[in-house]
């Protein structure tokens, strides 16, 4: 049975986690893996900034209604960016003609006339 000290030492010496990687390089790596996440974040910030800018000219609209509309628009932008990201990753994984994958295997099976 390991003591608490041995467990903590083992966890801290885990080589899968790296503190050497800087935040900027990690952000760049993650942006390359899924490019629609930074687009969604930027769109969210743009919608919120525009909503805050327009707050002074909202007219007779209550503040709470204006904030709710701003939140819905910002969330809609993020959900749209996430949806496009999922579609893009599915395209890269399954339909990209430059690399063989599942669809190329299906096309090979279709070209062989199997009889049952």
From TrEMBL:
Alphabetically ordered keywords of this record: Membrane, Mitochondrion, Transmembrane, Transmembrane helix
GO annotations of cellular component type: mitochondrial membrane
Gene designation: HIGD1A
Residue stretches making up the HIG1 domain: 8-100
Entries under PANTHER family matching the protein: HIG1 DOMAIN FAMILY MEMBER 1A, HYPOXIA-INDUCBILE GENE 1 HIG1 -RELATED
Organism: Electrophorus electricus
Name recorded for this polypeptide: HIG1 domain-containing protein
A Pfam family matched in the record: HIG_1_N
Localization of this protein: Mitochondrion membrane
UniProt signal peptide: none
Residue stretches spanning the membrane: 35-53, 74-91
GO biological process: mitochondrial respirasome assembly
Top-level taxon of origin: Eukaryota
């Amino acid at each position: 049975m390991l003591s608490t000290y041995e467990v903590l030492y083992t966890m801290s010496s885990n080589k899968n986690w790296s503190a050497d990687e800087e935040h900027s390089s990690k952000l760049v790596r993650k942006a390359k893996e899924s490019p629609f996440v930074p687009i969604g974040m930027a769109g969210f910030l743009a919608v919120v900034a525009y909503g805050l800018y327009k707050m002074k000219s909202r007219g007779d609209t209550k503040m709470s209604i204006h904030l709710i509309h701003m939140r819905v628009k910002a969330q809609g932008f993020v959900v749209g960016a996430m949806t496009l990201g999922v579609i893009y990753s599915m395209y890269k994984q399954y339909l990209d003609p430059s690399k063989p994958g599942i669809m190329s295997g299906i096309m090979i099976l279709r070209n062989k006339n199997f009889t049952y």
